[in-house]
Design goal:
Blueprint: E1 9-16, E2 20-23, H1 24-31, H2 37-41, E3 46-49, H3 56-70, E4 78-84, H4 95-99, E5 115-116, H5 122-134, E6 143-152, E7 164-173, E8 178-189, E9 195-196, E10 206-207, H6 209-230, E11 242-245, H7 250-267, H8 271-274, H9 293-302, H10 304-310, H11 316-321, H12 328-339, H13 342-345, E12 349-356, E13 360-368, H14 374-386, E14 392-394, H15 396-409, E15 429-434, E16 440-444
Parallel strand pairs: 2-14, 4-5, 4-6, 11-12
Antiparallel strand pairs: 1-7, 1-8, 2-3, 6-7, 8-13, 9-10, 12-13, 15-16
Bound molecules: acetyl coenzyme *A.
Residues 34-37, 40-42, 120, 158-159, 162, 195, 207, 209, 212-213, 216, 248, 251-252, 323, 357 line the site of acetyl coenzyme *A (ACO).
Length: 447
């Protein structure tokens, strides 16, 4: 018998996106910034957001209940439930504990796992925990469910257009169509104040935008280096059919793919044969190039075709919903999976880069197997994407008003949400009220 269960990985994915969005062109006009700053400069089309009816518990309740219903599993099939989030509403009580409400009718309370937090990285840490459980002596044969969810909102100013919101729930187990390649993982962790949330009374982070970009790109370099070191033979971008990234905004992802191309160039022993025309960059050091316009332009131009093929399809959700924080990189994976015919997915290898400020980052890879469950995984996932067209567009003024309502009502008790329930998608869990002891109560809009 093998030492570990076979083909451990992702067996199903379900995405939840907000029913409301604002258009980024309209937001440019409203914010009085130059035309194209958000749409061309950041590469964003639309941004999803939640009203005061949704908080981190309700988003995760929606994601987990719909994942279970769509995939025909039972709550008693689940032995581990992990949550990754940086949207904190209680300093003690976990989101996971709120999700146990869904398990009550099944009588299954033997469910390991709890919340994990570090900016946008918590979902990946949660996934790693679930994989480790399945490969450990503690595993009892049941499934794991991983949820990553966040409400990403910024104070008025240049970071606000890079917000978003969403939740992803994934079933993790053996015999999976999306196998996480064993032993192939690179990680880089360090101490940085690039983005953090020291004010516990506010949903808004403190952001050092430029530093956050430098930290992200450096983490990418370091993870790629350690991932490649784990490969048995010398590898480069050619080893991957697709590469998906944590996506604060789409333009940074295009720069990131170019950055991997730059790493390959630096690592190459045959620069003159493999990269003609880039000779002038032969002696550069990666650490000096984070904001070097000449290097950035040369490698973005050279990697444009690779970006179009391997990464652009992964930006569908990110461009239309925005940065969802922890679910963001899984939005990249989901967007790629629905972008090509299912029979062409078999045998594809996908590189994954997950980054959370502060900072924590990892790179790993997924191999798609010819598993009978693959078509169902993609079909179920497409239901989440259908919702993109059923959302309601609101004006930037309304969006700003809703964010002000969220800010004023955060931690208020007692509180009854004032926004309109009719805007929610059917089947959405929502916050019905908070009592004087700050206890939160939830209801579900009928499907
Ligand atoms: N047309 C086309 N492009 C434009 C225009 C225009 N009218 N105006 C500006 N641009 C370009 C700029 O040249 C710039 O391009 P570059 O990135 O190639 O340099 C880009 O648009 C952004 O413009 P900036 O002036 O650099 O933007 P600003 O500094 O105001 O804000 C930032 C950008 C820092 C990303 C801000 O939105 C932010 O702080 N966001 C949150 C932090 C973040 O997302 N960090 C990333 C990793 S950490 C994480 O995931 C949270």
């Amino acid at each position: 018998m093998d030492r570990w269960p076979k083909d451990v990985g992702i067996r199903a994915i379900h995405f939840v996106i907000p029913s409301l969005y604002v258009d980024q062109t309209e937001l440019e006009r409203y914010d009085q910034v130059s035309e194209g700053k958000y749409t061309v400069g950041l590469g964003q089309k639309q941004m999803g957001f939640c009203t005061d009816l949704e908080d981190i518990n309700s988003l995760c309740l929606t994601a987990v209940s719909q994942l279970v219903e769509n995939n025909g599993i039972s709550y008693s099939d689940i032995g581990r439930l992990e949550v990754g989030t940086e949207t904190i509403i209680d300093k003690s009580k976990s989101v996971k504990s709120a999700l146990m409400k869904l398990f009550e009718p099944s009588g299954n309370f033997w469910v390991e796992g709890i919340d994990t937090t570090n900016a946008c990285y918590g979902g990946t840490a949660a996934l790693f925990n679930a994989l480790a459980w399945i490969e450990s002596s503690a595993w009892d044969g049941r499934l794991a469910v991983v949820v990553a969810a966040d409400i990403a909102v910024y104070a008025k100013g240049n970071a606000r257009p890079t917000g978003g919101a969403g939740a992803v729930a994934m079933i993790v187990g053996p015999d999976a169509p999306l196998v996480i390649e064993r032993g192939l993982r690179g990680t880089y962790m360090n101490h940085a104040y690039d983005f953090f949330k020291p004010d516990l009374t506010s949903e808004y982070p403190v952001v050092d935008g430029k530093l956050s970009i430098q930290c992200y790109l450096n983490a990418l370099d370091q993870c790629y280096k350690s991932y490649l070191n784990k490969c048995e033979t010398k590898q480069n971008l050619n080893a991957f059919d697709s590469f998906v990234f944590h996506t604060p905004y789409c333009k940074l992802v295009q720069k990131s793919l170019a950055r991997l191309y730059l790493n390959d160039f630096v690592n190459s022993d045959k620069k003159y044969e493999e990269y003609p025309g880039l000779e002038q960059f032969t002696n550069i050091a990666l650490a000096d190039t984070y904001f070097d316009r000449d290097v950035e332009k040369a490698f973005m131009d050279r990697s444009k075709d690779t970006f179009e093929r391997k990464t652009k399809p992964s930006l569908l959700l990110a461009s239309r919903v925005g940065n969802m924080y922890t679910p963001s990189v899984y939005g990249g994976l989901a967007s790629y999976l629905v972008s090509i015919p299912v029979d062409e997915l078999v045998s594809k290898k996908i590189g994954v880069f997950s980054y959370g400020s502060g900072l924590a980052s990892s790179m790993y890879s997924i191999k798609i197997t010819n598993n009978v469950a693959l078509p169902a995984l993609v079909e179920n996932l497409k239901k989440s994407f259908d919702k993109l067209e059923r959302r309601i567009q609101v004006t930037p003024a309304k969006f700003t008003e809703v964010l002000d309502i969220r800010q004023k009502s955060l931690h208020q008790a007692p509180y009854v949400p004032i926004c309109d329930k009719s805007d929610l998608f059917p089947g959405t869990w929502y916050l019905s009220n908070i009592d004087e002891m700050h206890r939160r109560y939830y209801e579900r809009k009928e499907s």
